[in-house]
Amino acid sequence: MKAVILAGGLGTRISEETHLKPKPMIEIGGKPILWHIMKLYSAHGINDFIVCCGYKGYVIKEYFANYFLHMSDVTFDMVNNNMQVHQRNAEPWRVTLVDTGEDTLTGGRLKRVASYLKDEDAFCFTYGDGVANIDIKAQISFHQNHKKLATVTAVQPPGRYGALNMNGQLVTGFTEKPRGDGGWINGGFFILSPKCIDYISNDQTSWEADPLTNLAKNDELMAFTHSGFWQPMDTLRDKNLLEELWETNKAPWKVWG
To answer: What are φ and ψ of residue 24, in 5° steps?
Structure first.
């Protein structure tokens, strides 16, 4: 099965870093968050990726073109003009990088890579700026069993602030960042039939608008509920949280060895 990852957005709410690189290339623990997402899929046996590039897409292309340089020890023989790579630590990945346009919306980016997916029974699809400890294998099994066109991961986002536990006006304790209002939201990490791409009109179609709405209207959208860790990287605060979890060896999304 292939995984399509959206990696073309501007990331305006984390502009401290995205003026130099696309948002999925912002690093957590010295590795782009895109790498973390790919490692999650790879841990569940998915190693064929299609990355939808846009804003500063050349940064992503250069990263993978020089992957050995990032991941291994290297000797450069200047006299003979060659390079020797030691201890090759590269992943068993096949990565297709597709320029899907700077101003294309999320649905349009998926439509732009349709030719790479036409022979698939189903494929994974997610955003390039969020991590989770989702059981992808279980989700694939869920998708195959319900036989609908689309599966979305439903999550309950963490609250932004801690909460007071109160008995009347007496504070009895604290709850650190409880779940939000209890509602389930679109957490990305979709599994889709290629037929879902027919619901996308053009470059200016947002995946989250008409396509998902119409799939739901047609009873073709099922929710895979995930109550474990899920965290998008929308702001610098989010980035710092993920960085802290990684640096303290408490990153729940690190499901690989």
So the answer is: -65, -10
pLDDT at 18: 66
d(Cα 109, Cα 98) in Å, to the nearest integer? 9
**Would you say residue 201 has pLDDT above 90?**
yes
Cα Dmax for the chain: 78
Q: Are 62 and 75 in contact (CB under 8 A)?
A: no
Q: Are strands 163-167 and 31-32 parallel, antiparallel or unpaired?
A: unpaired
Burial of 71 (0-12, 13-18, 19+ CB in 10 A): middle
Q: What whole-number distance in Å separates Cα of residue 123 and Cα of residue 185?
A: 21
d(CA 153, CA 135): 11
Question: Which residue shows structure tokens 């690190």?
Answer: 254
pTM higher than 0.85: yes
Secondary structure letter of residue 159 according to DSSP: P
Alpha carbon distance 107, 69 (integer Å): 34
164, 167, 171, 173 alpha-carbon torsion, rounded to 10° = -60
Burial grade of 225 (CB within 10 A; 0-12, 13-18, 19 or more): exposed
Residue 61, judged by CB atoms within 10 A of its CB (0-12, 13-18, 19+), counts as middle
| Joined tokens for residue 12 | 């305006």
